[in-house]
Amino acid sequence: MPKLAELLLKKSNLKKTISEQEEYIQSHLKVFEDELPEENINDSLAKLDAYYEELDKLASTISKYNNSYTLASGKTIDETLIYRDILKARHRHYKTMLSIAAANERTYGLSSRGEQTTKKVILLPYATIRKLVEKTKTDLFNIDKSLQRANWECECECDYECV
């Protein structure tokens, strides 16, 4: 029985193969009359369709296990992947806030109320923002570690041979 990690690797390799086949077809769709490609374009297209069908089957199998395998946290792999995406967005936002706070720019001019102002002030301490960045970074690392562990622990009952 293949591990989920092996199926994910197979999926990644299949997507590369599909991309290469698409490029081949696109580059040989129009050719000069005297420069016909080695492979018939219809055969190339049939091969691409077979790759798409295999990818669909493989992605469905992976999805099935992502939705059923539970991590130590009590969440499924799929739920954890969704949470990781949200955490990545949060981390990007905190890093942007950190950059803005670090700029420590001094600007002079009028405030939004038309009053004279001498400088902009940081409303959230740099150290507080830094802690948020570090916490989300650590959380992301731990989530990735638990996902990797699950990918190698989860055995998938399927027809795929992963060598």
Structural write-up:
With 163 residues, this protein is mainly α. It has 2 domains: 1-68; 70-153. Helices cover 66% and strands 2% of the residues. It is built from 4 helices and 2 strands, in the order αααββα. The chain has helices at 4-27, 41-68, 77-103, 126-153, and strands spanning 109-110, 116-117. A two-stranded antiparallel ribbon has the order 1-2. A hairpin with a 5-residue loop joins β1 (109-110) and β2 (116-117). It is flat, with a radius of gyration of 25 Å. The N and C termini lie close together (11 Å). The mean pLDDT is 90.
Radius of gyration, in angstroms, nearest whole number:
25 Å
Q: Based on DSSP secondary structure assignment, what is the total number of beta strands?
A: 2
Assembly classification: single chain
- Please give the alpha-carbon distance between the first and last residues: 11 Å
Shape: flat
- pLDDT below 50 for ≥5 consecutive residues: which ranges? none
Q: Helicity level, as a percent range? A: 55-70%
The profile of the biggest β sheet is: 2 strands, antiparallel
Element-by-element helix/strand order: HHHEEH
**Average pLDDT level:** 90
- Broad structural category: mainly alpha
- Total of helices: 4
Domains, number? 2
Biggest sheet: strand arrangement: 1-2
What is the beta-strand fraction? under 5%
